[in-house]
Amino acid sequence: MTVPPLSATLDAPRTNGTSESLSFDGGPTDGLGFDLLDPVESCRQQLLPEVAKAIPTAKARRMSRSEVARLVTDVVMDTLDDTGQVLDLLQQRRLVSVLIGDLVAGRAQQSLEQTRAVPEPVADTVPEHHRLIDPLAVQESAPQPAARWGGLETSLEEAKRQVKPLVLERIDVGLASSLDQQTLHSELRDVVSDICKELRLQLNSTEFAKLVSSLVDDMIGLGPLEPLLADDSVTDIMVNGHDQVYVERSGKLQLTDVVFQDDGHVMNIATRIVTRIGRRIDESSPICDARLLDGSRVNIIVPPLAIDGPSISIRKFSRRRITLDKMAEQGNLSSAMCQFLKIAARCRLNVLISGGTGSGKTTLLNALSQLIDHGERVVTIEDAAELQLQQPHVVRLETRPASLEGKGEINIRHLVKNALRMRPDRIIVGEVRGGEAVDMLQAMNTGHDGSMCTVHANRPRDALIRLENMVGMASVNLPAKAVRTQIASAIHLIIQISRMRDGMRRINTISEVCGMEGDVVITQDLFQFEFQGEDERGRLRGSFRPSGVRPHFMPRAEYFGLGQTLMGLM
What we know:
By secondary structure, the chain is α/β, with parallel strands linked by helices. The chain has four domains: 117 residues, no CATH class; 98 residues, no CATH class; 90 residues, Beta-Lactamase, CATH 3.30.450.370; 242 residues, Rossmann fold (3-Layer(aba) Sandwich). The protein has a nine-stranded mixed β-sheet with strand order 9-8-10-11-7-12-13-14-15, with helices on both faces. It has a six-stranded antiparallel β-sheet with strand order 3-2-1-6-5-4, covered by helices on one side. Helix 3 packs across helix 4. The longest helix has 19 residues.
């Protein structure tokens, strides 16, 4: 039956500008007088459209030269790697400099428009049976739609713009939204096939499958973000408005060719994310922490707070089960540190994980939590639930924002207080960022050994200072020495983790809290990462060295029968 169109707008599919191999067969000069026999100028001719696709001219003119240079360099290096062409360092620098000038002057955009300027075929020269052909029956050898629309991806974009409104008119949108992805995909194939015949669209089987998948993603998925969510090499997705989407791969940020149609399309996807977990995002509540169905963490901020359009940040949940042993294999820590942390877990030490944004705190917390005995009752507390504990006896608690009337908010501090009444063996707080610090310290000091939490800080000493400051945020009127005494008796171990400049996450310090000396909390470093240089691939070289000192918790380790093993590691 006929129903009103979806509120979601069309999205612009990905434009994977595939580079042709670089050729040096041009004439002696181009229209601007550049010598095409020079390999730099020959590369320039091939790269102009690629640069224009990756960096629109209007956007480049708003950016600083250093930012433009970085993006152009990425395009140049990716294309040279794909085509196997070799330029020395000076040639690469000259090529980047020339392309920046072309981009800002608009010559790159002109070159891109010329490559897309393919004339329309004359209607009566196209056989009728070609224009009415069933998309499912088109063979790979059939004429490609590039001759009609100027390229594979452009044809899919145009086809989607024509097909989607007709699809929405012919289906029950409410019923479609209740179907699973596979069932909806199957049901839409026949509808889309009929519409393509009516519109006389030439699509081969691969293009047709992409079109149906894109429509399904728009209706029940996350639209243009679905391919990025399916890519296991992507760890973070950052949407900065409708026309700029970055991802993180191997610790490095990369600009993708994924775009939305407009800011309204981004808002529709953001609303779909938050409504699944009973939250809302609008002008009256422009900030929201949420999660995807697979546990990935999402932060959304929209206008008027986000000036340039809605912003979505997704920290993807790894499908792989990360353990301390796996982290040791990857070089995130040494085997000795791995064994040390296993002993710390067995000895039920209270652990504070410290690090910057994206440094791997939650991943490390998940790995440490796997060492908890399966006979213990564990309560986890988070703003947006993302911890994936494997124990059978786990109670997961999640905060709740205020309602439209401004009532009903449940924050982390409320949940920590309630967790103390739930007979937990261990309490795990995803992140301590405010007054809940005082309740967490009291929990650690009242028989809940083995509890863990994370905090944003640059060094172990900074983590202790942040805890002290956050206790003050709880409006608890305690002298500084009393707060520090409570911290010193509650926290046993501080693990500092960071994302280093080569993109690798490493545990660079494991410190132990030894107690108080006067008004000062005393700590000692047990392991440290010592930087020694970098290899030819730009990866940092170094070693994880034990300090050789006797751990302060040695009597506790001996109580658990692990004293000799612990000393062997030091």
